């Protein structure tokens, strides 16, 4: 079991330490690899939280440039980096012969020990991810069995963009914009896809596997409900998210904090039942407000 994270840019995110701190509350010994730019490698934050910083450029492949050309945006553009990180992670896993990898974004807080569901996740060939809405998957939480599973998806992206072009993908699949979230959702809808949905709600349409997990994962919606967005305060309910639409229709739903071993954990109360939420994707970037201690 390993975690791979990614960041490229002039500065590391100011909230990154909150992510590391929270992860170590529940996972003190899980290896974490952070793919980033060379000039970040000596930052003391990595040593402080036992994170292995890795030069992302050591895992560049021509596939990255091929995707960038098809995508039509600069290599340092936010949406380009959001998509090509999957290509860097793929190559990192391939060259390191790494399997059973977790990936989540830098503004995500983890509230459980990964070992709890690891045996169940790893028995399937492919990947698991949090589906956010009818046209998007988000890496609020993701499990990758091996590089071939990820390669299957990224090859699909390149073939899709080669066939349709960005404008053609947007028009054919009726998405607001083409980015890694919509590309993953299009891939997930393909019959040959290896991308499974994690349970994000206790009821349809996004309760897949809930009976096996007994808990929920957050694509970004629960985090937006708890912490708001950059433009809206706590209680945000985006209507292009499955969870946001559900929350809007059910005002009796509540999210509270419970304590387990002196660590607070977000918990959904619905129909007088409590459902643990394993992660929060904090869109507002105010991660420090939602740490377990």
Can I get a quick summary?
With about 290 residues, this protein is an alpha/beta fold. It is about 35% helix and about 20% strand.
Question: What does it look like?
Answer:
The chain has 293 residues and is an alpha/beta fold. Helices cover 37% and strands 21% of the residues. It is built from ten helices and twelve strands. Strands 3-2-1-4-7-6-8 form a seven-stranded mixed beta sheet. Strands 9-10-11 form a three-stranded antiparallel beta sheet, with no helix packed on it. The protein has a two-stranded antiparallel ribbon with strand order 5-12. Helix 3 (62-71) packs parallel to helix 6 and helix 4 (78-96) packs antiparallel against helix 6 (147-173). The mean pLDDT is 94.
Main features:
293 residues; alpha/beta; 10 helices
List strands and helices in order, with pairings:
Blueprint: E1 2-6, H1 16-26, E2 32-36, H2 44-48, E3 51-55, H3 62-71, H4 78-96, E4 101-103, E5 108-110, H5 115-122, E6 127-133, E7 136-144, H6 147-173, H7 180-189, E8 195-197, H8 210-213, H9 221-227, H10 242-249, E9 254-260, E10 263-270, E11 273-276, E12 279-281
Parallel strand pairs: 1-2, 1-4, 2-3, 6-8
Antiparallel strand pairs: 4-7, 5-12, 6-7, 9-10, 10-11
Helix pairs in contact: 3-4, 3-6, 4-6, 6-7
Radius of gyration: 18 Å
Mean pLDDT: 94
Q: Sheet with the most strands? A: 7 strands, mixed
H/I helix tally: 10
Give the CA-CA distance, first to last residue. Answer: 25 Å
- Ranges with pLDDT <50 over ≥5 residues? none
What is the approximate shape?
A: globular
Order of SSEs: EHEHEHHEEHEEHHEHHHEEEE
In percent terms, what proportion of residues is strand? 15-25%
Strand elements, count: 12
The helix fraction, in percent, is 25-40%
- Class based on secondary structure composition and strand pairing: alpha/beta
Strand order of the largest sheet: 3-2-1-4-7-6-8
């Amino acid at each position: 079991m390993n975690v791979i994270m990614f960041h490229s840019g002039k500065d590391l995110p100011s909230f990154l330490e909150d992510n590391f701190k929270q992860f170590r509350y529940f996972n003190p010994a899980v290896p974490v690899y952070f793919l980033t730019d060379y000039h970040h490698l000596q930052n003391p934050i990595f040593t402080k939280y036992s994170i292995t910083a890795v030069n992302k450029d050591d895992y560049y492949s021509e596939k990255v440039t091929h995707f960038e050309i098809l995508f039509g945006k600069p290599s340092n553009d936010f949406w380009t980096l959001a998509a090509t990180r999957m290509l860097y992670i793929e190559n990192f896993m391939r060259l390191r012969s790494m399997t059973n990898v977790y990936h989540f974004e830098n503004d995500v807080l983890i509230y459980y020990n990964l070992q709890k569901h690891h045996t169940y996740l790893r028995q399937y060939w492919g990947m698991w991810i949090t589906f956010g809405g009818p046209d998007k998957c988000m890496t609020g939480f993701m499990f990758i069995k091996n590089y071939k599973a990820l390669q299957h998806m990224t090859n699909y992206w390149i073939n899709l963009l080669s066939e349709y072009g960005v404008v053609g993908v947007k028009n054919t699949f009726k998405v607001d914009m083409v980015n890694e979230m919509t590309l993953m959702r299009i891939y997930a809808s393909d019959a040959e896809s290896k991308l499974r949905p994690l349970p994000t709600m206790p009821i349809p349409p996004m309760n897949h596997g809930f009976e096996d997990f007994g808990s929920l994962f957050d694509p970004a919606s629960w985090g937006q409900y708890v912490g708001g967005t950059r433009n809206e305060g706590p209680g945000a309910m985006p209507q292009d998210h499955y969870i946001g639409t559900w929350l809007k229709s059910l005002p009796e739903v509540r999210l509270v904090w419970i304590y387990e071993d002196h660590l607070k954990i977000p918990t959904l109360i619905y129909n007088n039942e409590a459902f643990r939420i394993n992660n929060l994707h904090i869109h507002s970037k105010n991660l420090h407000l939602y740490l377990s201690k």
